[in-house]
Amino acid sequence: MRSPIRVAVIGGGCASVAAAFELSRPEHRGRFQVTVYQMGWRLGGKGASGRGRFDRIEEHGLHLWMGFYENAFRLLRECYGELRRDPAHRMSDWRDAFFPSNLNFAADLSPRSGWLRWSVLFPPAQGLPGDPVNAAADWSVAAYFVRTALLLRTVLRSLSMAAADRDETDAGAASAATTTESQIAGLLRYGKLATLTALLEGLRLLGLAFNQFSLFPEGLLLRLHSAIRKAVEKQIDRLVTDHDEARRIWEIADLLLAALRGAVRFRLATHPRGFDAINDYDCREWLRLNGASRRALNSAFVRALYDLAFAYEDGDVRRPRIAAGQALRGAFRAFFTYRGAFFWKMRAGMGDVVFAPFYQVLKQRGVRFKFFHRLRAVQTSGRRVGVKPNVSGLEFDVQARIRGGKEYQPLVDVRGLPCWPAQPLYEQIVSGATAEVRQRDFEAPWEPSRHPRRTLRVGRDFDFVVLGVGVGAVADVCRNIVRDDERWRVMVDKVKTVPTQAFQLWFDADGTSLGLRGAISNLSGFAEPFDTWADMSHLAGEESWPRPPQSIVYFCSVLPDRHGEGGRAGAKRRAAEVKRNAIRFLNRDLGRLWPGAADDAGRFRWEMLCALPGSKAADGVRRFDHQYWRANVAPSERYTLALPGTLRYRLSPLDTGYDNMTVAGDWTDCGFNEGCVEAAVMSGRLAAHALSGSPPLEDIVGYDHP
Ligand SMILES: Cc1cc2nc3c(=O)[nH]c(=O)nc-3n(C[C@H](O)[C@H](O)[C@H](O)COP(=O)(O)OP(=O)(O)OC[C@H]3O[C@@H](n4cnc5c(N)ncnc54)[C@H](O)[C@@H]3O)c2cc1C
Question: How many angstroms separate the alpha carbon of residue 512 from the centre of ligand 1?
Answer without folding.
Answer: 35
